[in-house]
Each structure stands twice: as C-alpha cells, then as structure tokens.
Amino acid sequence: MTDRPKGEGWWLASDGKWYPPHLQPGAPAPITRTPPQDQIPNGLTNALTTLVLSTCGFMLVSAFVSFWFAGVVRDLGIDFNDLTREPTNEELLYFGLIGLVGIAWIASGVVALVWIRRVSKAADARGAAGRRWGGGWFIGAWVVPFANIVLPRLMFAELERVFQVPYRGLPIDGEWRHYDRTVLLDVWWALYLGAAVGRVATFILSGGQAASAAQELAQTARWDAISSLFGAAAGLVFVVVVRRILTSSTRSAQA
C-alpha cells in the first residue's frame, strides 16, 4: 500500500491508502507457472551433473594420491599399529581425500535419487503403460541385495526408452517397448560394477593377508585407487546418460 497511486489500476481503499491492482477485491489470483509434470527439470539435471562431475574430479585426484601413497607408505618407517602416534602428512592427505570423495559421493547419490524419482514421475505423466521399475523402485533397485547388480540398469534402460517416444500430450501407452536402450548405458553400468568390485577388494584382498601393517595399507591404497578410477569413469559416462535422457525428453515433446 502507499499514499499515492503508482500506476494504472491502483485503487483507493476505505483506509485512505492506495493498493496495487492484484489486491483489489474480486481480482483474479496471479498465475503461478510450474514445470509440466511430463518434463524433466533442467535445474535438477544441472545440479546432478555438476555434483557428479565434481565427484569425478575428487576421485581422479584421490586415485593419483592413493597410488603415490601406496608407493611411499613402506618407506615411512612407521609402526601403523601404534594408535597413539600422530598421523603423518602423507596419511592426512590420503585419508582426507578418501573422506572427501565419500562425502561427495553421498551428496551425488542423494541428488541422483531425487532426479530418478522426478524422471520416473515424468514417465508416468506421459502415460507409459507396463513399466516394471516405477514407483518405489527408484530406491529399491539400489538396496535389494544381489538384485541391485542388475535392477538399476534395467530401471535406467526403461526410462531411456520411454523418453525416446514422441510425446504430443496423449498417453504413449506401451509404445516405448519398441525402442532400444543405448550401448552407453551398458558401458556405464559395467564401469559402476568395476568400481564396486574394487571397493570390495579393498576389504577382502587387503585384510589380514599382508606381512605387515604397512604392506596392508599399501595394498588398500592401490585398490582404493583402482576403485576411484573406475568410479570416475562411471561418473563421466553417467553424466552423458543423464544428459541424453534429458535431451530425448525435450526432443520427444517437440516432435
């Protein structure tokens, strides 16, 4: 409100103050536009790709430092079983990067789950009939033991096929079944599993089999490095997969 009108449509109320047009009794409510439910939000996709690329960068640096640490750890001449000693600068760098990668990976994973859920809802809004991996599978596919070796790839393959179908506002029904997933999706999942195998090997192959604590830590650092390299490669391919699904969604809506 104000003591004087500021433009066309301003009206004088009984309290002697001037109010803007949209506050006049009986005026239509302002229109708030929300993204269509059948579209994938650009902002969310950009946030996901930025986080994943950042994580990939951390992983590459961590891989380099891990290989380096594996080479120098035996020369440090330190009793790694002595928990009362102060950690060395080499240890602080190595374990600090491992922790940073873990935090970045968790953040990327949370945003990825939000993105997958939003994409799955967009597929439902387009009327994709016969989907097997919708609903709560955006989380379940990753946490079901053993099945999580396959289900995430199947879920992404389904979404990739759905958004290739030309969409003109009418339900696409089962037409998405006539489209194929890309080979790139299989490359991403193979690299992802490679990173997971490397992480498991860190615990299985290094635990208790080395002649000394220094040798065990060196083996762990090497497997950390291998896992980080696979993880970085998987992340880069994942970004391409995500961007392709977004591009397919936009193109199919314009077809």
Plain-language structure description:
This protein starts with 10 loop residues before the first strand and ends with a helix. A two-stranded antiparallel ribbon has the order 1-2. The model has no long low-confidence stretch (mean pLDDT 85). The chain is mostly helical and 255 residues long. Helix 1 (42-72) runs antiparallel to helix 2 (89-125), helix 1 (42-72) runs antiparallel to helix 6 and helix 5 packs antiparallel against helix 6 (213-254). It has helices at residues 42-72, 89-125, 137-143, 151-162, 183-204, 213-254; strands at 11-12, 18-19. The protein has two domains: 1-29, no CATH class; 39-254, Four Helix Bundle (Hemerythrin (Met), subunit A) (Up-down Bundle), CATH 1.20.120.
Could you give the count of β-strands? 2
| Gross CATH architecture of the largest domain | Up-down Bundle
Per DSSP, what share of the residues sits in E-state strands of 2 or more residues? under 5%
Q: How many domains in all?
A: 2
N to C succession of SSEs: EEHHHHHH
- State the secondary-structure class: mainly alpha
The rounded Rg comes to 27 Å
> What fraction, in percent, of the residue positions are helical?
55-70%
Overall spatial form: flat
Largest sheet: 2 strands, antiparallel
Low-confidence stretches: none
The N- to C-terminal Cα distance equals: 47 Å
Give the strand order, joined by hyphens, for the main sheet. 1-2
At CATH level 3, the topology of the largest domain is Four Helix Bundle (Hemerythrin (Met), subunit A)
Number of helices: 6
CATH class of the largest domain: Mainly Alpha
Whole-number average pLDDT? 85
